[in-house]
Structure formats: structure tokens, C-alpha cells
Amino acid sequence: MKTIKSMMKTLLALILLLAVAPCALPGYAEEALPPLSDLFLYEPNAEEENAEASRAANAAYREKIASLAQDSDIISESGTLRFEVGQVLAVDDFTALTWRVTNLTDKAIFISTNEFFAAFSGIEYDVCGGWHWDSLVLAPGESASARFHGTLWSHFEPGQGEFTLDMKLYDVSQNAQEAAALAELGTFSPAESGCPLLEDMRLSVP
Question: Which domain of life is it from (predicted)?
Fold first, then answer.
């Protein structure tokens, strides 16, 4: 069990470092999310000793992850955005979930958040991040799929396991292309750009 947990944490940390990226490009909006189990895909290099055994062990591990992931029908909606939660996985060592977010307005929306505004009741994250979940620009009616995942540092109090993500939603219609380009680089500041704040919103997943 310790070996499996160590393997999971190592793989997840590497994935987070490589995969966490800004998500402002419209072309990403139609991409389908891979299953949560694919987050832990490991392909040994040709020089690795016992590569076939490593590949088989990883396949078995991903099969176990797939068996733990649960589909969700949670929908969270405001007048600005709609979130449809896809898959959820929560165990002692880590949590992971996917969702699809849709801009319900006739404005270009910038979703401002970061890992400091993500919380999982009773748990403190060691490494967290994801894909298409922060610093995201959505055109009117546009959707994007996202995932969030984190390894755990410590359990500092008993909790029910509720995941929350606090966001600020800005109208960037006047400079949507610039906002998207800067968001891709992680340097866009809606407040400094004078973009009006439309709404404070919280995504909550039990």
C-alpha cells in the first residue's frame, strides 16, 4: 500500500508540474477530458529495466483509479456561469474532479482564481492544480472542460470532504483578445486593466 501511495504521489506531482497551464485559448474549449485514470498514465522509456512490468503495474493501478472514480450530476449555476461536474474521486491521499463551465452571458468573461481559493474540507493541499480551471477567458456561450487535483499535506481537522473554489468573474469584452493572450502567460490583471467585476462565485462539490 505504501508503494502504491508513493507511486501515486510521485506521478501526480510530476503531472501537476507538467500539465498545469493557463487555459485562455478558445481552441481548447471543445477538447474532451480524458478519464481521471489517465492522469496517472506512465510510459517507461526504452532504457528502463523491467519496462513491461512497470507498464503492467501502471495499467493495473489506473484500472483501480477508474474503479474509484464516480460520475457526478452536480450542476452549479449563476446568472453568469454554469458548472457541470463530471467525475469525482476522493481518497485519503488525494482528490480529483472534472467539470465543464459555460459562459451564460453575452459578454467575454475572465474567471479569476488560484490554488489559494481552492479548499477541501478538513484537508490541506501539498501540491494542487489542474487544467482549464483558473485564469480562463470564455467568449459568450463558450464552454471549457476542466480538472482539478491535489495531493495532501496533512489532515488538520475532521471534515466532510466538500471541495470549494472561490472565483471572481470579470467582464473583459472591451479587450478580450488581449486578456486571453495575457491570461495564457499568467500575467493578466483585470483590476489593473479596469475590467468591471460582474460577480463573486463559489463552486461547491460535496
Answer: Bacteria
Residue 105, pLDDT score: 96
Digit-coded pLDDT (tens) for 75-124: 999 889 999 998 888 776 677 888 999 999 999 999 998 888 887 766 66
pLDDT digits (tens, 9 = 90+) for 132-169: 788 899 999 999 988 888 776 555 444 556 788 999 99
- Rounded distance, CA 112 to CA 84, Å? 18
SS (H, E, C) the chain: CHHHHHHHHHHHHHHHHHHCECCCCHHHHHCCCCCHHHHHCCCCCCCCCCHHHHHHHHHHHHHHHHHHCEECCCEEECCCEEEEEEEEEECCCEEEEEEEEEECCCCCEEEECCHHHEEECCEEEEEEEEECCCCEEECCCCEEEEEEEEEEEECCCCCCCCEEEEEEEEECHHHHHHHHHHHHHCCCCCCCCCCCEEEEEEEEEC
